[in-house]
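hey so i finally got around to running the thing on that chain from the lab meeting. sorry it took forever, my laptop kept dying and i had to restart like 3 times. anyway pasting the input first so we r on the same page abt which one it is
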Amino acid sequence: MVPERLQMARDGGAMTIDNSTEDVYERLLDISGGIGPDVCIDAVGMEAHGSNMLEHVYDKAKTMLMQQTERPAVIRQAIECVRKCGTVSIPGVYGGASDKIPVGAMMNKGLTIKTGQTHVHKYVPELLDYVRQGKIDPSFVVTHRIPLSEAPHGYHIFREKQDGCIKVVLDPAA
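ok and heres what got predicted. didnt touch it at all, straight out
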């Protein structure tokens, strides 16, 4: 069975890789003719889970012991997968300390690293115009519509990834 998030991405036209059933590095090499992608983007951030049990347990233990605040599995994977002289972009949210980031690989591959949270307010007017014109339809990511009075519940199911929740829309008029 395909996880809901992967199916949603496929329905939106994306090529997906399920890291629970495929080796991401090998798949990306295959897709890119053996050189790796030009750009890898970590849009997940500190909530990432490792692509294997050892990595996941290691990062989880380090955060529980307050020895790191992040789970940098996606950063590690992006550095590993991107081609030499490629770019790793990290708009995902991080806020503290991480270890086991392969700085040697990053340097030896001559990577460009771009970081910083997305400047949402810069893009909102243009994106809203696209929505109004029917050029894009973001409704496919909305899985829950609830009254504003139920906002804490909406945040809870989103944070805990319950009930297939991907995006909650709060309706103040409901």
